[in-house]
Queue: 2 jobs
Job 1
Amino acid sequence: MKVTQTIAVGTPDGLQCLREASQSGLALCFPGVGSAFARQNDPTCLIVAKDGVTLLVDVGTTIPRVLSSRGIGIGDFDYYHVTHSHADHIGGLEELLLFDHYVINKTPRLILTEPYKELLWERTLRGGCEHRENGTFQFDDLADFIFPNVIAELPREIYEAEVEGIRLVIFRTVHIPTEGDNSGSKFWSTGLLIDGRVLFTADTRFDPLLFEQLPMDNVDVIFHDCQLHEPGTVHATYEQLKTLDNDLRGKMHLTHYGDMFQKFDSATDGFAGFAQPWAIYQ
Ligand SMILES: [Zn+2]
Ligand SMILES: [Zn+2]
């Protein structure tokens, strides 16, 4: 995938640029490429577009404002998916649900596995969304759901869904290693394989088994979580990713990175580069 254009600040309808670009095939754009604590970039968030259909992956706390800088409303997407319950990925979801309900009278379509739907509502969203003017909301009152099918349980849970020609494989990642190693986690976190060819890890610690357990044959681009400082407790570090094979690194664009990125020469280190905010990858 190559960058074909960049959506500039002040573009009146940035989502339309992506819809048009996606008429010639899958198009991706990251409104944010930063870590949870970055200040130079917004939190990592991905727009997937294909044949004019749009999907927003992750809605961090500041993402509604970030989208508006390119004329995009938080309620404008056809589908939504979230990878895990850290605020830099879900902090803007309450706004999406309440804005859609009270302001634009729309019901957002969320692609969520059934176990995570429950966790997301009970442990995060319910506090701010449950009570209404007369009575209470359930999650189902505020969103429609597409539930992916389970396609593998061991050694890693993998799910699959297809929406209007966009094929998503959703796989568990080890972001917070509650079991003390990389074997599993009580913390729900997932990444995405899009149309069999784009791997987006979302947040994960260094986990090379991923590349053995996923169907990698047709993957031509990887967007990988990258923390620039050591140690890599809950994120993969730049130094750890440098130990991967040339072939993997050559396809790998780094995301979720901190503000020190200009001190790193990703090309010399064999990476495809740091993912660029608002660039359209096709
Ligand atoms: Zn994060
Ligand atoms: Zn996280």
Job 2
Amino acid sequence: MVEEKIRLLLAKYPSIIYGFTSISYSAYASQYKSAFVFAVPYGEQLTIDNYTEERFERGIQAAKVIVEEILVQTEAILREQNVNYYIPPAAQNNEEELTAPFSFKYAAVNAGLGWIGKNDVVITEKYGPRVRLSAILIDSQFTYGPGIVKSNCPDSCNKCVAICPYHALHDVKWDIDTLRSDIIDYQLCNQKRSLYIEKYGRKHACGLCMAACPIGISSAVSPS
Ligand code: SF4
Ligand code: SF4
């Protein structure tokens, strides 16, 4: 019943990619059985030819508005159905380890939304990496996966690696056992983007390694 209602809600948002996964692997497993995880395309699907930091940031903000809409409506369903849930924070709350309490990326690959690219972000077939992820932990059973366990990046591609101005990416092709630190020097990426906090009032959005990705650019510019 809960799954049916969530699927009916998402039918109104055909551009959104979503799925469900067991979270038996997670620290939240004793409280919630599953995660509903979804990927909202950025407001603009930029390529390296039309990329600017400001446009990239605007696209993220537009996607965040849709994420909020989905969260509010899903919460209403879960409350109506009397099902326990928790919305984990999107951002890391620890600037040292730079990890979030619940990884949306790991949930997304387990739910089958995409794989992790050499740029350390989830790559969807439809939009490549140009999506905003979110998730809700739900104490209910769903139809899961199938999960994705290895990269579908073309063997010859390293466009994201080559474009990083700080050489933060290690040119490593992901599989389910790969650690984040194998793929990216996340401290370096974060440190460089944080240098802009004074100037912009936020970290630099730096989407270069996403804009450079050839996956999904057939849907570039605006999602349908
Ligand atoms: S976000 Fe920017 S700094 Fe970070 S890895 Fe990608 S290109 Fe490099
Ligand atoms: S640019 Fe190439 S290597 Fe990097 S994530 Fe996209 S497909 Fe994978």
